[in-house]
Amino acid sequence: MTNLTPDSTVPGSTPVLPDGASAPATTPGGESRGKTVINDAVVAKIAGLALRDVAGLYALGGGAARALGAIRDAFKSTDHTQGVSVEVGEGEVAVDVTLVAAYPVSLQQVAEDARTAIIEAIEGLVGLHVTEVNVTITDVHLPEETDEAGEADAL
User: Fold this and answer.
1) Which of 33, 66, 67, 100 gives the lowest tally of CB atoms within 10 Å of its CB?
2) Distances from the Cα of 75 to the Cαs of 44, 46, 48, 72, 83, in angstroms?
């Protein structure tokens, strides 16, 4: 979990202060107003949601993740973190994303647009500095391709 205050007592969380943040919120009398803890899964979900509007991105995750996603979709469940993993440190985060691009878009442009969307979303919504976004493109989806699950795994 990402803790936005330095005195976390939550097990398994990392004390983190985002860039430009100050000490924990206090009242004028010096009393603590509490602490904010953001789970790492929330950071991953924000990254996944940021990718929804990236042009040329067909699906998130590799083959196995997309197959599981098709099963999950059959039960009307959605995993916005599919294909996204994060490592949160002291005030910063590194993101790895695996995706399938649509043909015939520029793969470099899809990767750069994905990187930009993730950085803007995490830095804007969470307040952590994004040190890197590693993009792995595992496949290119051809328009005439249809998979057995239909188009359910497309974004």
Assistant:
1) 33
2) 22, 23, 20, 5, 19
